[in-house]
Specification:
mainly alpha; single chain
Amino acid sequence: MHRFSAVIIVAIACLALPAAAPAQGSLTASQFTAMDRVYAAFAAFDDADGTTAADRREARAACAAIGSADPLSAVLRRACGAQLDVGQALGITTRCAGPRSCIAGTRFVQRALTAFIAQRRALNRAVIAAGLGAACTRELRTDMKTFQYLTRLRAGYAQLERAVRTRSTALAKRAERRISALRDPDTRSVAQTGVDFRAACVPPA
């Protein structure tokens, strides 16, 4: 099962930092602590039994706790909320009933993925602008295979929307197979991404 089907992918997607923002070299202690809380909260989404309303509230609270005291924190906070929006869109589509709600749901997924792709491209620029260390940069950046995966996932939901709109059972089945066949190139669990983040991005003592 690809990780979008699990409702959420933990990733740090953000808008570009202002051009004048100075390189900071590494995450500050407060940034690291806030992001560590995010990873800990999102680990609940690894649960095969699904997430609860309390899990989702904790994730939202972790996003809010990042704060906006500096440019990088501000974009990380927005990114955190955007990630949850993708999960929300996929959840709505999974639970939709009837053509009208399912068309709305598939469109919601496509919009969320379009924004997510743009934000993850901006993340690459933001990490470089921040001048983070090599290990942390590798952990936070997005590679081309992941962009291809996200683009193909969006295309699958566009096909599913067409199927629902035209009431084509055959097209719907093809779209569902297309989506189900996709695999996130990053096969790590959410918990493991947290472990790797901590190892790569811990600030110097």
